[in-house]
Amino acid sequence: MYDLEEQEQIDSLKAWWRQYGKWVMVGTAAALLGVGGYNGWLWYGHRQDKEAGRAFEAIRVAARTGAVTPTLGAARALQSQQPDSALATRGALIAAAICHAQGKDGDAQGELEWVVQHSREPALVDLARLRLAGL
């Protein structure tokens, strides 16, 4: 009934756990924190993208009417809230086009200069420079 070999294995396992158990727990906690942090970072980025999308949609809706003030206001709001967003750059280009179409070239120039200064996309920077030259 009493197996010595089994008892030795249990004692060996207990000794191993006493020696390495805290490191196993620390490693497990670090892994869980890493996974949790990564998921939190993904959630935050997704939330930021959704907010930028809503703000960009406000720019598009305002641009359809051709009104300068709401389009420019929505574009500047997006630029101030999320200046690194690709949608902020595109919103500025839309706002600049609406401003130019309504004869507000000063505002259009400001939006295009913002694109040149803040965009991380070389093609959009070149487009903004081309449009600036056309003004």
CATH topology: Serine Threonine Protein Phosphatase 5, Tetratricopeptide repeat
| Total DSSP helices | 5
The CATH architecture assignment turns out to be Alpha Horseshoe
Oligomerization state = single chain
What is the arithmetic mean of pLDDT? Answer: 93
Q: What share of the residues lie within helices?
A: over 70%
- By secondary-structure content and strand pairing, the structural class works out as mainly alpha
From the alpha carbons, calculate the radius of gyration and give it in angstroms: 29 Å
Q: Regions with pLDDT < 50 over 5+ consecutive residues?
A: none
* Largest β-sheet summary: none
Strand content: under 5%
Q: Kindly, what is the distance between the CA atoms of the first and last residues, rounded to a whole number of angstroms?
A: 96 Å
Mass-distribution shape:
rod-shaped
Tally of distinct domains: 1
User: What is the element string, with H for helices and E for strands?
Assistant: HHHHH
**Secondary structure tally: strands:** 0
CATH class annotation: Mainly Alpha
